[in-house]
């Protein structure tokens, strides 16, 4: 008899209706429609059924009573390209409920080589000499070889293409170079890029003119791709920058997504409604233009963003040489403090309006590491030097790069943008963790808290959004932007990316002063049917796949 039971066990296991059954949850399905009580059944890595599933059976059952069950969150603007090669568990993102991350801005994982300096890291966090690949196909292969807990996709960066072909220098591209840039975009699209992304507020992106961006985007458009842009300026000139983004979309016949839409200039705060109206006008005229935001009133860039573009030409070493030149000090100080008249350069000092509005993230030189997490005003006082002199010293002594948080836009403007139906959620952060090499420095709290902050603060506490609309902005809206039409919804046939959270407790804990704190309230995260987070603890599973763009056949 015992032998008979043992023989029946495999057959009984095979007879289960589902691999995983999530019971008794409050289902927010990603459409924006009202929540409802029900169950979600997962089989063969996909969602097999949603609704009251009665006596259906499963190999594993998750009791979601009192919890909200949603599609996995898709971070439409993420910078984990390099961090996931250090730790594929993507801890700070998974613990926010993120199941997919979309990379690429001005820089991207490829192309690597060409005229880029061997030690260049400005466009991508891994230098040319460290990378084990030259194109996106090679990068994707490296990611899959190491394993990753979330799905990933990427744009090809316009600055990455520019420096590959033209080098880290200003000046117009020749006809031959323009053809070479088009070819690099073509290669990237065929290998799975989602489109072309840009970061135009500082070099090398600020050196790329509108016509060149149109030429790159035309190629992406031929493969069905999108243009994603950190605009040329988010301060004075932001209206012109939106107009340029719209022009590129029209001329290249590509949809546009504006990265972290904001008005980052203290004397322009309150003009977000007018900026939104300019985008709505284009949408009414039939143009596909959308945007994303992160739920904070500060952004992160680099202290070098305060240095005028002409002084940055040629890369970090050339910039440092100029910063050391006494003859250039008067010009540098004047342009840093007052800006460049008639220029579209986005001056981060004038945007914040004070040295107090800058918080240093990390410093590579141990002599200055004590300033991580300090305001620039505090550093100036500690060094007992004039402000610009202290600024230049920090950059010179830290290899020309000091990641910095800038408090440059208003809470009210951010909230207004967040409420717009065509604006989705993106962190602009990266997957870090609270220990080990990815715990260094003082990163922006969005690295740890973006999605729980929306759900806890702006949904539960302040009612800026309904939970259904917030989830839509985190899931199906971003899935469509990334051309992933089989993700982002809890529907039969979709890939089983699921986040289960406590809507009554979910919240971010990371602050600007103490950012290395995981969010709370995320209970389960499932990626392609595998449980990656269980009761708030990472399981170590790495079931993530590549989310290929429309130029390449999707392969889960």
| N→C terminal distance | 43 Å
Fraction in helix: 25-40%
Structural class: alpha/beta
Label the overall shape: globular
The number of strands is: 21
State the major sheet: 9 strands, mixed
Strand portion = 15-25%
Radius of gyration, in Å, reads 24 Å
Number of helices: 19
List low-confidence stretches.
none
Average pLDDT works out at 93
Walkthrough of the structure:
With 556 residues, the chain is α/β, with parallel strands linked by helices. Helices cover 33% and strands 18% of the residues. The strands form 4 sheets. Strands 1, 2, 3, 4, 5, 18, 19, 20 and 21 form a 9-stranded mixed sheet that branches. A 6-stranded parallel sheet has the order 9-10-11-12-13-17. A 3-stranded parallel sheet has the order 6-7-8. The two termini are 43 Å apart. The model has no long low-confidence stretch (mean pLDDT 93).
Q: Would you spell out the secondary-structure blueprint of this structure?
A:
Elements: H1 2-14, E1 18-27, E2 36-43, E3 46-51, E4 58-63, E5 68-71, E6 73-75, H2 83-86, H3 91-94, E7 98-103, H4 136-146, E8 151-154, E9 156-157, H5 158-166, H6 175-190, E10 195-199, H7 210-222, E11 226-230, H8 238-252, E12 256-258, H9 272-284, E13 289-293, E14 299-302, H10 309-312, H11 316-324, H12 329-338, H13 348-352, E15 358-360, H14 376-383, H15 387-397, E16 403-406, H16 411-419, E17 423-425, H17 446-461, H18 467-474, H19 476-481, E18 498-501, E19 522-527, E20 530-534, E21 537-538
Parallel strand pairs: 1-4, 1-5, 6-7, 7-8, 9-10, 10-11, 11-12, 12-13, 13-17
Antiparallel strand pairs: 1-2, 2-3, 5-18, 14-16, 15-16, 18-19, 19-20, 20-21
């Amino acid at each position: 008899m015992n032998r008979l039971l043992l023989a029946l066990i495999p057959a009984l296991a095979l007879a289960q209706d589902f691999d995983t059954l999530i019971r008794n949850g409050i289902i927010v399905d990603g459409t924006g429609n009202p929540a409802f009580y029900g169950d979600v059944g997962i089989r063969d890595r996909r969602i097999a059924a949603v609704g009251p599933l009665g006596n259906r059976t499963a190999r594993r059952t998750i009791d979601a009573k009192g919890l909200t069950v949603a599609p996995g969150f898709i971070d439409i603007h993420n910078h984990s390209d390099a961090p996931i090669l250090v730790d594929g568990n993507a801890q700070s993102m998974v613990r926010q409920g993120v199941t997919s991350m979309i990379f690429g801005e001005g820089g991207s994982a490829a192309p690597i080589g060409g005229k880029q300096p061997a030690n260049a890291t400005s466009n991508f966090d891994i230098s040319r000499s460290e990378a084990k690949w030259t194109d996106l196909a090679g990068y994707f292969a490296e990611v899959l070889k190491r394993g990753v807990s979330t799905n990933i996709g990427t744009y090809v960066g316009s600055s990455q293409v520019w420096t590959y072909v033209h080098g880290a220098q200003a000046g117009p591209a020749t006809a031959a170079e323009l053809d070479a840039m088009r070819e690099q975009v073509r290669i990237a699209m065929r290998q799975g890029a989602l489109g072309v992304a840009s970061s135009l507020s500082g070099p090398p992106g600020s050196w790329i003119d509108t016509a060149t961006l149109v030429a790159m985007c035309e190629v992406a458009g031929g493969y069905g791709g999108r243009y994603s842009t950190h605009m040329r300026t988010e301060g004075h000139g932001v209206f012109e920058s939106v107009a340029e983004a719209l022009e590129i979309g029209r001329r290249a016949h590509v949809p546009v997504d504006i990265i972290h839409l904001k008005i980052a200039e203290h004397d322009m705060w309150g003009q977000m409604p007018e900026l939104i109206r300019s985008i709505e006008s284009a949408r009414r005229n039939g143009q596909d233009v959308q945007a994303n935001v992160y739920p904070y009133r500060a952004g992160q860039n680099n202290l070098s963003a305060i240095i005028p573009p002409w002084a940055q030409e040629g890369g970090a070493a050339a910039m440092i040489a100029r910063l050391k030149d006494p003859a250039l000090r008067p010009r540098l100080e004047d342009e840093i403090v007052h800006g460049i008249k008639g220029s579209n350069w986005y001056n981060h000092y004038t945007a914040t309006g004070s040295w107090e509005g800058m918080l240093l993230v990390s410093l590579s030189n141990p002599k200055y590491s004590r300033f991580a997490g300090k305001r620039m005003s505090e550093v100036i006082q500690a060094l007992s030097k004039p402000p610009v002199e202290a600024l230049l010293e920090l950059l010179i002594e830290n290899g020309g790069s000091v990641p910095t948080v800038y408090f440059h836009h208003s809470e009210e403007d951010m909230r207004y943008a967040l409420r717009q139906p065509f604006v989705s959620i993106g962190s602009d952060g990266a997957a870090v963790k609270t220990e080990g090499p990815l715990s260094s420095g003082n990163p922006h709290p969005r690295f740890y808290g973006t999605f729980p902050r929306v759900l806890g603060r702006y949904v539960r506490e302040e009612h800026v959004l309904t939970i259904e609309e917030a989830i839509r902005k985190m899931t199906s809206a971003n899935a469509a932007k990334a051309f992933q039409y089989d993700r982002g919804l809890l529907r039969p046939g979709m890939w089983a990316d699921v986040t289960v959270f406590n809507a009554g407790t979910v919240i971010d804990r990371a602050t600007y002063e103490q950012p290395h704190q995981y969010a709370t309230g995320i209970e389960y995260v499932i990626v392609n049917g595998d449980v990656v987070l269980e009761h708030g603890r990472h399981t170590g599973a790495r079931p993530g796949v590549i989310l290929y763009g429309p130029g390449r056949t999707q392969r889960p």
